[in-house]
Model the fold of this input.
Amino acid sequence: MDISFRCNKCGQNIVIDAASAGQLVDCPKCRTPLEVPYKSKSLDKRVISPAKMRERYIALRWISASLKVAAVLCIVVGIAGGVACVVGGELSRYGTSADNTEHAVVSLMALVGCLLVGGLCALLLWAAGDLIMVFIDIEENTRALRELMETPLSTT
Done:
């Protein structure tokens, strides 16, 4: 009699002789070592394999990655804006007899302001990207839990 089960990593259906129950075998598709169960597990077509799950939410994964790229760009723009404020403040000082301390303080305040705004925007964008990934992980874990709950317990 044969035992049928799925690979935990790629979802590949595996059918193997019952004499191999309890032994380790490699998945023929992804080469992940798997322990052969003592009886067949349900090969319900409604259960989505991890490989299919990655394809399922591709748009959300792209949005998450795009938000993280935008976060990095916010940091870069914040730094560039701060440097531009400092350079602009120094350039406006030439040819005037204004107090040097006042220009330095204004330039420093502009630098700190640009860095804070850029950093805050980056933090919010990165957090939004991670939040999307958390929701995807929750959904995947909920499906895996449902599959475990529907699998009957063995009485060996």
